[in-house]
Amino acid sequence: MQTSNFAHVIFQNVAKSYLPNAPLECHYTLTHYIHPHPKDWVGIFKVWMDTARDYFTFLWSPMPENYVVESTYNCVVSFRGYYLPNDDGEFYQFCYVTNKGEPKGASTPFQFRTSSPVDELLTLEDEGHSDMLVVTTKAGLLELKIEKAMKEKEELVKITSVLEKEVTQLRQYVESLEEKLKQEREQSDQLISEREEMFKASERFKTESEDVNRKSKEMSTKITQLEDDIMTVTQKAIAKETELDSLKDKTKKVMLEKEQLECQKDLLQNSSNQEDILFLKQQLRKLEDQHQASRQEVSLMSKELSDAVNKRDKTMSDLHTARLETDSVKNQLANALAELRIRDVQQKSSTFLKKDQGVENTRVEQELRKEVEDLKLRLQMAADHYRDKFKECQKLQKQVVKLTEQLKVAETQQKERELFDNAEVAAVIHMQQCAVPVNPFSSEVSSELDIREQVRQMSSEISEKIENNRKCKQMLAEEKARCSAYADDVAKMELKGKEQLKVNDSIKRQLIAMEDQYKVQSAEKDREICDLSHSIETL
């Protein structure tokens, strides 16, 4: 599609008439159809002009600055008053002519006329919407328009000042929010660095734990080797003791043979009393029965004591497991609180991004609340488990006290029996020394020696029994001390459980307060962001 040559340059704001001998400004627009040249010019022609040489006056067209091909530019030229035509009643027009003498644009016609009083008058409609016409001068109309424009300008200046203040306040608020965001990010970075340090510390502790376990295994191996050495030495000692006992038996046999010879010599001179021997045999049987009953009683009490020790060990194991579970729950609760703080920081830093993340934040809050409730339930279960273990420990302690009393009674009875047995043994020995056997045969002498041997064995068994009772008493005292320590541990654990419950309540209150504060802050941030967005949109 081709365009007219006169449409390449468009003249703007051309009046119907101009004053002669007064400066005149000509405004025009160079379209993208024309390529300006320094020798292009703008002239004033009469409407009936035939060629480009019929101009009245002209001015060179200025070149646009930073000219770009196929771009539009606005230009202006000023004609001096003494070069312009006089008031001759002719119609003139502006025309843009290229360096080749080709016209590329022409304005609407206009005249050069001197002003008259009638020309300065204007007729306007009444602002009261009446049918009357108001006659006024152009200067008065211009003054009214200028006054109105000045008022509008003042109002615009005031509005601009208010808006600038609001923009300044908004910028300050945005800067404060950015500062808070920066602080939150610094806190988040600090938490991340602390978490990394804790991870490194845990790795270091893990390495140390592995070293300790390795050393423990080495020590266990050394202990096993030492136990084997002790067992070997013990076996050698037992062998030596066996040899020593064999030598003692040989010595006793020699002594018995000597006593037999002496008894045979005495039998040739004296008579014996068979009734005393029968009485001694009955006393020996009675002592054997009592000894067997005491042995069974001690065995039964040892079994009961062993059962009590096993129950105590099981209870200690359960208590240790409960402690581990409590520590695990504490760690989980601490991790949950740390995660809650981190997510709170992340939430504060992400409130400026999108509002549709509220659903995700609500879900995270629900998950955290659920996790906290689960931890509280587990802590409550651990506290109940502590109470059950404490009651069981009290029952075991009562059983140990009861067994201790029974053992004391058994020891008292045993001491009385030992005194009685020692008295009877002394009487038997005295009667054996004073007795005069009547049977001259060697079989009776052997029976008397057997009775003496049985008395000696019973004496050794009684001493062993006394030693065993002493050991049982010592074990019972140690067990009592352990039970007391266990009771103290249980009491401490109960106090720790109560303190933990208090801490849990405090943590629960803190979580509730943090949730409320978080909700309030989230609502405030959302409201502030909405206000800020509205203000920015308004600006």
TrEMBL record:
Chain ranges of the Calcium binding and coiled-coil domain: 117-271
Keywords: Apoptosis, Coiled coil, Repeat
Regions annotated as coiled coil: 146-304, 365-413
Database matches in InterPro entries: CALCOCO1-like (IPR012852), SKICH (IPR041611), UBA_autophagy_assoc_protein (IPR051002)
Transmembrane segments: none
Protein's GO biological process: apoptotic process
Keyword Lipid biosynthesis: no
SKICH domain ranges (all copies): 9-112
Gene3D superfamilies noted in UniProt: 2.60.40.2840
Protein's UniProt name: Putative tax1 binding protein 1
Organism: Hymenochirus curtipes
